Amino acid sequence: MARSKTPSFVTELPLKVSSKQEKELLSRLQAARQLYNCCLGEALIRLRQVRNSEPCKQARNTKDKEQRIKLYQQADKENRFTDYDMKTFATLTANRSKWMSDKLGAHEKQTIGTRAFKAVKKLQLGQTKKVRYKVPSRYRSVEGQSNATGIKWRVIEQKRPKIIGKAKDVRNKIKCAKYALVWNGLELKPIIDLFNSVIAHGLNFPVKYCRILWRNLNGKRRWYVQLINEGLPYQKESNYIGEGIVGLDLNISNVAKMHRDLFTAFLARHVNDDSLSLLDAQYEYSGSEPILVDAWKLYQQT
């Protein structure tokens, strides 16, 4: 499933996770890590085949840019080194393992395949020197492809029972009362700061997909959910672009440089075959900007 290319921003919320839920989450991340390492190894094998293929060798000796791109694309396709092929490989590999198949959904398997492919693609394009297999402490996140299945952000209660405080209170911008992150039988409750305008802004926008991750804070593992929202991020009212008069405080050196640059640009219009037509330049000065006339006077004085 292709993700939409509309503007996006991220809203991050901490999660309430019990010891039983944390054990299950770590088990699922372990399955995701092992599948990622498997896809990464397969992608490296296919990259090696691409570099040794005949179209890739021809592309290195071709000067035509368009032809070279077509040959590289042909080499990738012949050796199944594409995003679609790696998604297929990840799905087939996970389905052969009952443990991985139970822990991960179809969308999570495909995003893991895409993640491994992008890592090796950077190696192919020379954007990185090497790729690394992940150990348990370095693999900390997993995400879905959409908010329809897999890791889902759901609303439990639609409306608030009453208005909190004044009508303009920031807490009233959050339209719903309760939310939850649902992932294949797990229901995790977020911790929502009702006084945070940024959080209220993110909760009122549609969610494209979700990402669940953990961090070490003060020696303890903390879990978070990142909502990839569709729309523009929150902007303070004081930072909006307004209308009005703007003043510039230029010193003498800046003004002199501006005169010189404008005068040079004006004279450049009357240069033909490395020769300057002074008559044409003087003829057009009558209708020129006053600042150019001043620049011409300063030039005559020097």
What order do the strands of the largest sheet run in, or round the barrel if closed?
2-6-7-1-5-4-3
Strand content: 15-25%
Structural category: alpha+beta
Task: Give the radius of gyration.
Answer: 30 Å
Helix count? Answer: 10
Binned, the helix content reads 40-55%
For the biggest sheet, the summary is: 7 strands, antiparallel
- How many angstroms separate the termini? 70 Å
Low-confidence stretches: none
Spell out the helices and strands N to C.
Answer: EHHHHHHEEEEHEEHEEHH
Mean pLDDT over all positions: 83
Outline = flat
Give the tally of β-strands.
9
Can you summarize this structure?
With 302 residues, the protein is of the alpha+beta class.
Describe the structure.
With 302 residues, the protein is α+β, with helices and mostly antiparallel strands. The protein has ten helices and nine strands. The chain has helices at 19-51, 54-60, 65-78, 83-96, 98-103, 106-124, 197-203, 252-268, 278-284, 290-301, and strands at residues 8-16, 141-143, 151-157, 178-183, 186-190, 207-217, 220-230, 271-272, 275-276. A seven-stranded antiparallel sheet has the order 2-6-7-1-5-4-3, sandwiched between helices. A two-stranded antiparallel sheet has the order 8-9. Helix 4 packs across helix 6 (106-124) and helix 8 (252-268) packs across helix 10 (290-301). The model has no long low-confidence stretch (mean pLDDT 83).
